[in-house]
Amino acid sequence: MTKIGNLAGAVVTKNSAEVDSIKRITNLILDMLHHLKLVPSDTLKNLVDMQCRFFSMANLIDSESNEACFVGIVGMGGIGKTTIAQVFYNKFELEFDYSCFLRISTSNLVLLQYQLLRLVLKEDIKVQDEDQGADMIKIFLRGCKVLIVLDGVTTKRQLEKLAGSPDWFGPKSIVLITTRNREIFCQPNYKNKIQEYNVKLLSDEGALELFCKHAFRDGHPDENFMHLTWEIVQKVKGHPLALIKIGSSLYGRSIDIWELQLKKNFYDVLVQEDLFSVILRTSFEELDADCQNLLLDLACFFNGERVERVIEILESFDYGPTDIKLRLLVDRCLTDISHGRIQMHFLILCMSQAIAQGKLGTQRGIQTRIWLHEKIGLEYIQGIVDLGEEEELALEAESFRYMTALRILEIDNVKLYGDVQFLSNQLRLLNWSGYPSEYLPSSFQSQYLFKLHLRDSDVLQLWEGKKKFVNLKEIDVSGSKFLVETPDFSNVPNLRRLILRNCERLRYIHPSINILDRLVLLDLENCIRLIRFSYNISCKNLQTLILSNSALVRFPRMKEHMEYLTELHLNGTDMYELHPSIGRLTHLLLLNLRNCNRLYHLPIEIGRLKSLETLILNG
Predict the structure, then answer these.
(1) Are the C-beta atoms of residues 134 and 186 closer than 8 Å to each other?
(2) Is the pLDDT of residue 370 over 80?
C-alpha cells in the first residue's frame, strides 16, 4: 500500500465540491490498484527461470549514464514480457520521482496519454488531442526521474506519442516497452537509443518445473506420467502461458486423456483457454492480407525448410518482396529463422494451421490448405502437401478438376483412382513423385509454374508440341524410366536446371535446349540409351554438364560462346574420342573422365583449357 499512501496531499481546491474530490481520489486509487497488481517480494524465487530473465534484462540498463534509458522487451504473446516488466517495476518504483505501469488496452491515444499523466501526476489532466498530450508529457516530465512501463505497445505511433524520445524525460529515467513488434523501434528518435531484450523460451528444466507445478498436486509427476510429461514439455517448447494452461487442464485427469490431448496437439485446450487470442489473434489480424497468407503458407507447407528455397518459391506468389515480408513476420515474433531454416513455435504453427482449416474464429471460415491426408475437392484449396506418412494417400483424379485455386501440390506415395485429366493453372510448385500418367494434362499450361518435379514418374513425354511455361525454372524428372524424349522448350525461356538422371529409356534431347539462355545445369547421368547429340551444344550460360554413365560414343561439338561452363562430367561413358572443340571451353575448371575405358587418347586441343584445375583420369 506504499504507493497508495503517497496519495496523501492530493489537492482539494476551494472551488471543488468535496464529493467530487473524494470521487476523484477514489478513482485514482482504483486506477492504481488496477494497473499495479503488485507482485509479492519473493517473486524472483517463485517464478520459474525469472531470476535469469530478470537480470538479463536489467543488465541492459546503463546505471552510469545520466540519459533516460529505453529498453524494449520483445517476444511472442504469453512468453512472459509483462511479468518481467512488472517484477522490475515493483522492485524499483520507489527509487524514482514518478512511476507508471500503463497497459495499452485501447487504440485511443488521447485516452492513453490521459491515463499516463493521471497515473504519474495523480491529477486529472485534460488532454484535447494527441499532439497536446505529447507536449504535456514532455513539459511535465522533462526534468523528472521517472520509471514508466508501456505494456503491450503495438504501433510506432503509440510509442511516438507516449514516449517520443529519451529527452522527454529527466536524467536516469527508465522506460520499459513490452511488445510483439520490434518494428516499432525503427524510428529516427530512437536510433541506437533503445536496448532490445528478446525474451527467451523457458529452458527444458524450467519448462518441466512450471508444467509440473500446475499438472500435479505436489509439483512432481507420477512415474506413470513421466514420459508423457516430457513429451508435452518438448512439444510446447518452453512457452510459459501454454505450459500453465495445458498443465492446469490435465490436472487430475487420467493417462488416456493426456494421450488424447497430446495426439490432438492440445487443440481443445488452446481454444477453451482462449490461448489463440492471447498468443496470435491480435498479431495475425494486424497483418495485411499478403502477410497473413504468407504466415499460413509457412505454417502449412514450409516450416523447417531452407529460407532460400522458401523465398525462391514464394516469390511467384504475388505477395510482394518475400524477403521483406518474411523479415516482418520475424520482427513480429510470428516466426523465426534458425540455422538458415524457417522455425515456427509449436503454438503459432498449430494455430496458423487451424486458421487455414477454418477451425478458428477469424474472418477465414473456409479451409484453404491441406497438408494432411484429408478428403479434397474444394475450389478453395490452395495447397496440398503429403507429409510422407506411412499410410498411402488415396486421391480421386477427378477431384483435381475442382481445385482451380491450387498453387502448391507436393505428394508422394499416392494411390490414384482415374487418370489425371486436369491440373490447376494456378500451380506454382508441382512436386509429384511417382506421377502415374504418360503426359501432363493437355490443358495444363500454368504461367506461374516455378518448379516441376516428377521424379520416378510414368511420363513418356512431358508435353506435346509447344507450351508456355514462362516462369518455369526447374524441371526434375529423375528416375522416370519410360521417358523417351524431352519436349520442345521454345516457350520455357527461364529454365535454369534440367535434371534427367536415371531416365533409362531417354534417347532424344530436343534441340530447342540450345535457346535456353538461362540454363545453368543439364544433368543426364545414367541415361543409358542416350548415344549421341544430333546437333551442336550451344547453351551459352551453361555452368555444369553431367553426362556420366550415359551411352555417348562421341562427345558433342561445343560452340565457342560457352564461356561459363566450369564443370564437365563424362565419367563412365563409352566415348572413344573427344571432339577438338573441347579446347574452346577455356573457363572449364573440372573435367571428369574417370572410367572412360574406350577413350585411348586426348586431343591436343585439351592444352587450351587454361583455367582447368582438376582433371580426373583414373579407372
Answers:
(1) no
(2) no
